[in-house]
Amino acid sequence: MKNQWTNFLSGTVRVKAEGKGTERVLNKLVRNKVFVWNVKKIGAETMLFSIHLKDLHNFRRAVRSSGCRYSFLEGSGGPFLFKKLLKNSGILAGFFAFIIVILVLSNMVWRIEIKGAKPETEHLIRKELDKMGVKPGKLQFSLDGADDIQKKLTNNISALTWVGVELKGTTYHFQVVEKKQPKEPVKLPARNLVAKKKAVVAHMFVAKGQPLVAVHDYVKKGQLLVSGTIGNPEHPRIVAADGEVWGETWYKSKVEVPLITKFSVFNGNEKVKHYIKIGGFSIPVWNFKKITYKHYEKEMSERPLKFLKWELPIVYKTSTFRAKEEVTRKYTVPQAVLKAKDMGKKDLRKLLPEDSKIVGEEVLHQEEESGKVKLSLHYKVIENIAVGQPIIQGD
Amino acid sequence: MALRWGQKLRQLMMKTMDLPQDVIMDLPRITMIGQLHIYIENHRGLLTFTDDELRLMLKQGQLLIKGSSFSIKAILPEEILLEGKIDHVFFINE
After folding, report:
1. A70 and A16 in one domain?
2. By CB count within 10 A, which of A352, A377, B80, B91 is most buried?
């Protein structure tokens, strides 16, 4: 006898047969390979029995000319259950809608928390985030990743030294470290001013102290420029020397510029492919076209779908293909020289304090060798050479 | 005459080869579990079925089962499983 479980899945029908000779009908059914079970006789001419739903066609053919009346009492099993479920499809739809709503809400940004920032900085950060689209109510998929947000924030807000971005559930946490604006020293210790490096004094401004050098003097590194000891030599007073001594200093640098440079640049064309990754398997959902770029860079980002506090094994994945182009840059020799001078100046600027000035530039030596132009450059710079040196007061 | 010969040949085979009788001689094989179940193989069709009586066609004669609250749990061309309270099992030879 067959397993009743499979019967249940495929569906069964309870049949009522009325009339004379129900036994003959039963024999005929059995011979026609209609599986019959749970046969019961009620009264003299009524019989109840169960058959498979899939045998219904065979059953009709077998009993066509038997002279009995048939009625189907009830169906049970899979197909009937399914029908019932469809009838109550409102509940089903409600259930799915509920899950979808929770799914959507779980993947939204609900709160932005900023810690460790002054109110002004916090306002700045919030404005910047608004510009990026990081707002409560946005879907997390449409936003940049935490790393990108971090990079943009630190780049765009100068008051930030570091910002930690963390997405916890539906809340963005920002841990902010602000730049400490250096405070004006309240009281300078007693000190002299000495030369930072060898230079020729160009002009000077001494606010406090006894200047020991004059304009056009040549000074060596560490030479005393402004003394903090003032007043009568017999009763000296020691103060904190303060002032600026601008000296002409010299720098040498060597710059190389290749005449032909190849480099690859993004030409702005890009294509984004969208996938849904379930388990380890990616299913493309948008942009199925093949990438036709000759050279490109591929960038992938994956966002796991969340359900309440759990991460589902379903991941929304995008791959961005950025087209690259090879560009060859060619310089003639004069152009290369100009470029080299420019580069040299820029490099020097990075080394110098901001208030200094480059006043002169001279090419000491120029040569062309294996496709490169080599330049030795000499610069004249006016910069503040005075640095404080504390006076150690011994007895 | 021919039938007799066949019968005799079968009986001979049965005795010499030691095969079960129901296989060779098309006899019903009846298994009963107390009074609750009766399982009949090798029947030749249902004759009557009511709440308290089941009559089956056999190759030779009929089988009559009497009892109460009968229901057929399963029926196949040559097998039948009957459930209920079984009181009597009769063999009816014409």
Report:
1. yes
2. B80
The answer to whether residue B39 is domain-embedded is yes
Which residue's entry shows tokens 């030779």? B60
ipTM, 2 decimals?
Answer: 0.72
Contact call for B74 and A36, based on CB within 8 A = yes
Among the partner residues A1, A23, A38, nearest to B46 by beta-carbon distance: A23
> Are A276 and A293 part of one and the same domain?
yes
Q: Determine contact: A30 vs chain B, CB below 8 A.
A: yes
A335 and A267 co-located in one domain = no
How many angstroms separate the CA atoms of A241 and A228, rounded? Answer: 5
Q: Does A3 touch chain B (CB under 8 A)?
A: no
Residues A9 and A75 in one domain: yes
Q: What is the pLDDT of residues A140-166, one digit of tens each?
A: 877 777 788 888 888 888 777 888 888
With CA atoms as reference, the chain B residue closest to A42 would be B51
The 10 Å Cβ neighbour count of residue A44 is 9
Residue A269 domain boundaries: 261-329
* Alpha helices, H only, chain A: 4-10, 22-31, 56-62, 78-87, 89-106, 119-132, 146-156, 333-351
Number of structural domains found in chain B: 1
Q: Are A330 and A273 in contact (CB under 8 A)?
A: no
pLDDT in tens, chain B (94 residues): 566 787 788 778 777 777 777 666 778 889 999 999 999 988 888 888 888 889 988 888 889 999 988 888 888 888 899 999 999 999 988 7
Q: How many domains does chain A have?
A: 4
Q: Which residue in the set A36, A41, A49 is minimally distant from B50, CB to CB?
A: A41
Reply yes or no on whether the pLDDT at A395 is more than 60.
no
> Would you call A41 exposed, middle or buried from its count of C-beta atoms within 10 A (0-12, 13-18, 19+)?
buried
On whether both A68 and A53 belong to a single domain, the answer is yes
Among A37, A46, A49, A66, most B C-beta atoms within 10 A, so best to mutate, is: A37
CATH number, domain with residue B32: 2.60.40.2000
pLDDT digits (tens, 9 = 90+) for A332-372: 888 888 888 888 888 888 888 888 888 888 888 888 888 88
